[in-house]
Amino acid sequence: MTHTLKQEGKFNYIEAGEGQPIIVLHGLMGGLSNFDAVTSFFSAKGYKVIIPELPIYSMSLLKTNVKTFAKYLHDFIAFKELDNVILLGNSLGGHIGLYHTKMYPKKVKALVITGSSGLYESAMGGGYTKRSDYEVIKKKAQDVFYDPAVATKEIVDEVYETVNNRNKLIKTLAIAKSAIRHNMAKDLPKMQTPTCIIWGKNDGVTPPEVAEEFNSLLPNSDLFWIDKCGHAAMMEHPQAFNDILFNWFEKRGI
Question: How far is CA 70 from CA 54, 100, 207, in A?
Fold first, then answer.
């Protein structure tokens, strides 16, 4: 991670740059460093990039769900005294961004989702019966990407530690159930927020048809594809991801 983590009150976050705020929302097992390229690029382009550490494993089990995380995000935005924010979320982070936008539409200027849950989950919390087998977990981490080399030892070690921590595993499964329970299909047609959908053509977790469904249900969205790309486009093809998003901001006047 190339940026320093700040701690204020109950919030831990990274902040870089000045200007229009972009709040980045990480996924279930996605570290803040996954967005280093996004942070560096947009903080140099006149945006303030903020990445809060979401309380995925620190909430009580009863509060470990998409709705509570969306409320936590609302509290963070209020704490930072921000308005008209852009929300950018990957995987579970996209789902939290969508749910927050449903609940607090006036706070959100634009939404960016990539590999987002909210419509379909491919065994998001499953497949951990052999969680003590490092090679099985390594393969699972590699399958997230088109190029397995992107799953560095550091990433694999982090996933392995998470699924072998009983408390974290229970909460991972609770979040997976919550993601299914908080399906957004009926909400999306009512959401008018400008939305940029950037998707890997080879995403095996949330396949391409999920992106197409998001695009058809959201009334004010644009869909962009990145080829030879899995579930985390901003990591696997950072330059293409940043270029697509920056051009979309310019086109939309955001």
Answer: 10, 5, 24
